[in-house]
Fold these 4 entries.
Entry 1:
Amino acid sequence: MRLLSVVGLSKAFGGLRANADLGVTVDEGEIIGLIGPNGSGKTTTLNLLTGFLKPDSGTITFRGENVTGLPRHHMSHRGLARTFQLTRTFPNFTALQNVMVGRAYGHQPSPSLGAAGEEAQEILGRVGLAGKAQVPASELTLMQRKMLELARALAARPRLLLLDEVMAGLNPGETEDACRLIREIRDSGITIVVVEHIVQAICGISDRIIVLNMGKKIAEGPPEEIIHNPQVIEVYLGKAYA
């Protein structure tokens, strides 16, 4: 079933076109990889989808509703959640309090603080932070902060989860753990779009990969097709994949 449809999406900052006539579809249950060189428009795409930016033109349809240009809190209430390239946890809040924010303000908010706390504790366990519930976010490692931000997004009960370089800066073991967790999240019924530069990881978890360059979609298909695409090799992957 079609969950998200994007048609003709464009966004410019002055003379710089960050997205140009972008078309994207996402079906329920998919993991979609979004890759491309730095500055190709990946994060701008996520910002447009989640209401952090308004498009100059184009339409965004989510669960059959035209949501183009809606502010981010409306998008959250409709079932979109995201993480950020640079983590945006609340540094003075404990890990538990950070996740409770997601339960309070996301899709299907919790009816009480007590219920929010119980659900937040369970979600911390899912991402490996059960023992860090009372630790301030500022005292967590990079990996732990990334998992905390993911937990907060999950607490919003999203239908579509957008992950912006959640594996950046992680060591190989942590990256493998993150990939396993992403698959588990998808298997729980949440559709996922992942922006990532670790090619091996994104190919290992994605059903389809969309490639952007200079704001335009230049390729789309299964991972094994994308890594052998001559244009993708030229502008992004490099000779190692030729």
Note: The chain has a mean pLDDT of 92.
Entry 2:
Amino acid sequence: MLVEELEASTSIIPSIDPMIEEIKEAQQLDAVCQEVQNLIIKGWPTYKTDAHTAVHPYWDVKGHLTESKGLLLYDQRLVIPSNLRLKLLDRIHQAHQGIVKCQARARRAIWWPGMSKQIKEMVQGCRQCRINSPTPVEPLQPSTLPSKPWIKLGADLFEFQKKNYLLVVDYHSRYIEVRRLDSLSSAFTVDKVKSIFSTHGIPEVVISDNGPQFSSREFQQS
């Protein structure tokens, strides 16, 4: 388990926890962590340029950084030194839960500059995560409204109470025409379409679901 699900805070994780001790020792050996802790105790300079370049990634979040019981914390989360980050990334990622869940799990307890970006890159580069992730759904694209009626039509077949029907919709006015189909053959469907066109005129475009009746030679030549 990732340090009791990585809910890292000295108030809720005992200091004897081996992972906490490992992180604490790593912080003590890490020059950047030590410099940040010194700045917390002694005070940050007025200007970022006056601080050592190694601590610049911590500058914008300095108000969240504290020191408690020898541990460097970001709010109630442990600051992870550079030499332990790959190890923690591996533990966060071991269940292959995807970017959002991995980031949420990490944010419960640990922090370092650029952590969320590294988690995202790690998951995106994982073959198992790509297999587990759902296929994205293409967003629906709104159709362009024609300038006048009966230029662009939609056509489809549907069944109601065990009977088949042809539905034609005008994209401009939303006016509909419905014809009952005694047969689902292409020839019979074309005859019904022609009867509608003879009343209202021939449109420039007909949009269909490419069913066999609409993709047949009879319909294409109608």
Note: The CA atoms of residues 1 and 14 lie 15 Å apart.
Entry 3:
Amino acid sequence: MIQSIQRAVQIMDFMKEPDKSYSIKDISVATALSSSTVHRILATLVDCGYVMHDEVTHNYKLGYALISLGMAAIHNTKLQELAKPLLKELSNLTQEDAFLMIKSGNNGIAIQKEQGPNNLKVVENFGYEISLHWGAIRKVLLAFQSAEFISEYMRTNFKPTPTRLVLNQEKFVKELEEIRQNKIAISTGDYIPNGVGIGAPIFDHDDRIVASIGIIGTSTRINKNNIDDMAKIVFEIGKRLSRMMGYTREY
């Protein structure tokens, strides 16, 4: 492994928190690299456009050149290509915004979205990482992780959300068990008041969960009158995309 590249990746990975800039000292402390090493690597990254330097504050943040790399990675994968028409179908059938999400560490991130026709929406930022226990589509990703991962996650990351200030760990573990059994998750107001989410897992040919798919809307549109029908639609779309990814077991 080339050490300089590894260090550059380490620095950029540390800097990925949205709307934040960093001093050389911040980066040096976080990465355990010397200030001179950090400065040298940052200078190269700035020249390449992967990092931006503020001439006033002398702080650094990730640059726009990374966007094209990220979008290229997204567009060049089989999953996104297969999911695109199904997301559109899901949005058309439910009349809600449809999302494809993947796991990123202890977070879930929306990598693809199909807009529904309604003007009143639950805002879900594309590409923004949010904890795995926030919302149905992310809970699905957590539910199908290993027992060891879930145990460690519950110990270190199971923290209150903006709308759930008190959490019941035992109740949540049972919820994850139900998600694994039914292959569907439903949440109401997990982190946005009146927000309702429905999510289903996407498996590949190795029986691994590779993503989740689902919808997010408001409780005025997704409620006791139609939520079961909505869940069936999400379930079937998840099943079809899993089959397209090579999953052959019973869904």
Note: The mean pLDDT is 90.
Entry 4:
Amino acid sequence: MRELDVRYQALLQDMEGLRGQLEGELDSISLKRIMVQIQDKLISTQEIGDDKLQIVQHILDIIENRQRQLELDSKNLDFGQEPEKQEASKETQPERASKRARRTRNENAANHNENSNDAPVTPHVEKVSTSKSSAQKKATKKKKRKAKVEREREDSPTEIPIDPDEPTYCLCEQVSYGEMIGCDNDLCPIEWFHFSCVGLTNKPKGKWFCPKCRGDKPTVMKPRAQFLKELEKYNKEKEEKS
């Protein structure tokens, strides 16, 4: 815009100079030449005016676009703030509700305390009954233990009169008494064993081998070569003792 103003002022000065020349005496050719120059200057000034109008229109268009953009931005801001306001109102409502609930709980607790103070105290009967049942269980356990000890005493060989000529069996080298089990190895040097000595309570199903004859399991016999070596060693030790 400043450049256009400078050009416009220069054209006005030129036109003033040409107008001064017209005041003097001129021939027809000079007059015609000056008039053409003035006409060109006027056309130039008109073009400068048109350029200024275009610049002003462009500025107005930019302002309108900016104004529309600002309106859209303001609408978007308002649209984004409405859900936030709703969420804030929702958050405040539960807080108020929770405060009310706390007040009601406090009131209920106060009412409960008042009722508990007014109500008579009754003795607790369930604990007594449970203590009686536990005492009965302990008594039955003691009775079972006594009966078991008595059975073991009855089965023990100490109460049986031992004949010195009676053969002995088992790992304990005692006479036959109570329930006994035989080893399924025909070459077993001991043959018969007391249930209590080999950790049995009932007779097992299938084959059963004693601790001296068994392998990895009570139902599996150890390798024959290993058994024969151990049998030879056992017989030698027995002969030395006798």
Note: DSSP finds four helices and two strands in the chain.
